[in-house]
Design a protein that fits this description.
Elements (H helix, E strand, L loop, with lengths): L14 H6 L9 H11 L3 H9 L15 E3 L6 E3 L14 H7 L8 H15 L19 E5 L3 E5 L9 H4 L9 H6 L12 H17 L11 H13 L4 E5 L8 E2 L12 H16 L4 H11 L13 H14 L3 E5 L6 E6 L8 E7 L12 E5 L2 E4 L4
Length: 387
């Protein structure tokens, strides 16, 4: 679900959703979260899911508020979409509310997080554990499910209690390529290894990698011990499958090379014509964004800092644990509103020694994001369809 008020896209992406969403403002209090949960549970798809199968559920960020981080102190706890003091108010135009991401003061963030967690435990039929998780003091979402002699399924919070502020708030890497793409308009030079553009592009990618690989960034912290202990026990018991359900993707989400879209057209004449048009478009000042994405693609730079690619040091540690203590490790995830599948390689590389599989599910109540293109390998462009 989404926490925004009706002035923001994801709470009201269609007239039908905008008409029924409650509350109309951004959810902040416990009753706000309860009302929004009630609204989402009118969705027929979610109702059918509940009828057909039990849930082993874990939350994502918007069950709280966009991009939370919660390491315990006032300075290390907050969210991208939490404004203790709001620059807009209920009488402001919707455009001002959207820009401010609020229409009222939102107060203490820890109080808000605990209200959100309590509402989640009230509405989602999961194995609610007593206790606390860092700043969450109304229970524990950690679940360890041994499924006969087949599998052990593990899930725990990855969105709040251990999560670093950076790179959480900078949710994409394309902006790092923006200055480069502004001054280098000929994308054909991006692949020319003797060009200055190629060298400059690699330098940008190297600097981005340094940011993503910062050893201080963590998403799961010492919860890695939960993985190690329980998956090892599953392996020792002879279960063939070890499954970890987490909120965000572990696979390297690299955008497709938009300058090569003509290669998807079978008719050579049409492809050539399309290439001429797209080449001209890529030269335009307004196409800096697409040139930046092309540079990302050619350097295999992951697009999203908000998932495990943004926590690359910890990602490598997790993959090493999975390789060590699992027979057949599978990581289940959500967040992207679409269906994806990745083979995960040692050290988070784009190829090499496989060590796990990552499957990402599409959405149920949230808007679907079709027509995304990610590359799974260095030279393999794939179009992703709904599973």
């Amino acid at each position: 679900m989404y926490e925004y008020g009706v002035y923001s896209t994801y709470a009201s992406d269609s007239p039908e959703r905008k008409a029924k969403i409650l509350p109309k403002w951004e959810q902040i209090s416990l009753q706000d979260y309860r009302n929004r949960m009630a609204t989402y549970h009118t969705d027929e798809g979610l109702q059918n899911l509940r009828r057909r199968a039990p849930l082993i559920a874990c939350w994502d960020d918007h069950e709280f508020t966009n991009n939370p981080f919660g390491q315990g102190t006032e300075e290390s706890t907050g969210a991208e979409n939490h404004q203790a003091v709001c620059e807009a108010n209920v009488t402001s135009p919707e455009s001002d509310k959207d820009a401010a991401q609020c229409d009222r003061d939102e107060g203490d963030v820890m109080t808000r997080f605990n209200a959100a967690a309590q509402s989640y435990f009230e509405w989602i039929p999961i194995r609610h554990q007593p206790g606390s998780m860092g700043i969450i003091d109304v229970g524990d979402i950690t679940q360890i499910i041994s499924w006969g002699d087949m599998a052990t399924i593990v899930t725990f919070d990855t969105r709040v209690t251990h999560r670093s502020e950076e790179p959480t708030l900078n949710s994409s890497t394309w902006g790092s390529f923006f200055p480069f793409a502004t001054t280098n308009k000929d994308v054909s030079q991006y692949s020319n290894q003797s060009s200055s553009a190629y060298t400059e592009m690699l330098n940008v990618a190297t600097e981005v990698a340094k940011i993503l690989e910062n050893e201080e960034y963590e998403m799961i912290g010492d919860n890695v011990d939960i993985l190690r202990t329980n998956l090892q026990a599953s392996k020792d018991a002879g279960q063939p499958w070890q499954i970890w359900s987490t909120a965000t993707a572990m696979g390297r989400a690299v955008k497709g090379d938009y300058s090569r879209m003509h290669e998807f057209i079978d008719d050579d004449a049409v492809a050539a014509s399309f290439k001429g048009i797209s080449d001209a478009i890529f030269q335009a000042d307004a196409s800096t964004f697409f040139r930046a994405l092309t540079a990302e693609a050619l350097t295999s730079t992951p697009w999203n800092r908000d998932d495990y690619s943004g926590f690359a040091h910890e990602q490598r540690q997790i993959l090493a644990v999975l390789k060590e203590v699992s027979n057949n490790p599978i990581i289940l995830a959500g967040d992207l509103h679409d269906g994806y599948g990745w083979t995960l390689f040692e050290n988070g590389a784009v190829n090499g020694t496989p060590c796990a599989v990552n499957l990402v599910c599409p959405s149920v109540t949230a808007p679907v994001r079709p027509n995304r293109h990610f590359r799974s390998q260095k030279d393999d462009i794939v179009s992703l369809s709904h599973f």
